[in-house]
């Protein structure tokens, strides 16, 4: 099991934090939540949508990046993450892919 951190680094103001944000994902939601807990992240920050389990993630601010890597997160590019998520979508089957296509056609993480 692995936790991954992409290099998206999207500038955004989320709540009180103005930073560059990347995606923190894992092989399982349980592992992702455990890692996020160790990082002091709130469960409410978890992002997941019905029909898109392969896109479950936390947004991680740049200021926490070094800590995440020190805690074992594996860095990869956002393109590598996109390919990984695409493989998960294919494995999940056509019902998930159909639901996803209807909800987001332009999600940068899905490409």
Write the layout of secondary structure elements.
Elements: E1 3-5, E2 10-14, E3 17-26, H1 29-38, E4 58-61, H2 65-70, E5 74-75, H3 78-92, H4 94-103
Parallel strand pairs: 1-5
Antiparallel strand pairs: 1-3, 2-3, 3-4
Principal-axis shape equals globular
Task: Compute the number of structural domains.
Answer: 1
Q: What does the largest sheet look like?
A: 5 strands, mixed
Number of helices: 4
Q: Assess the beta-strand content as a share of residues.
A: 15-25%
End-to-end CA span? 23 Å
Any low-confidence stretches, pLDDT <50, length ≥5? 96-111
Give the total of beta strands.
Answer: 5
Structure description:
With 111 residues, the chain is of the alpha+beta class. The chain has one domain (3-103). The protein has helices at residues 29-38, 65-70, 78-92, 94-103; strands at residues 3-5, 10-14, 17-26, 58-61, 74-75. Strands 1, 2, 3, 4 and 5 form a 5-stranded mixed sheet that branches. A hairpin with a 2-residue loop joins strand 2 and strand 3. Mean pLDDT is 86; it is low at 96-111.
What labels would you give this structure?
111 residues; alpha+beta; 5-stranded mixed beta sheet; 4 helices; disordered C terminus
């Amino acid at each position: 099991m692995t936790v991954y951190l992409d290099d998206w680094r999207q500038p955004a103001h989320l709540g009180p934090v103005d930073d560059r944000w990347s995606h923190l994902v894992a092989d399982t939601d349980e592992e992702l939540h455990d890692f996020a807990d160790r990082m002091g992240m709130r469960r409410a920050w978890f992002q997941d949508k019905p029909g898109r389990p392969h896109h479950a993630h936390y947004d991680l601010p740049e200021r926490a990046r070094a800590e995440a890597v020190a805690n074992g997160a594996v860095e990869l590019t956002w393109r590598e993450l996109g390919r990984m998520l695409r493989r998960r979508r294919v494995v999940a089957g056509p019902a998930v892919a159909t639901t996803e296509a209807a909800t987001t056609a332009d999600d940068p993480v899905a490409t």
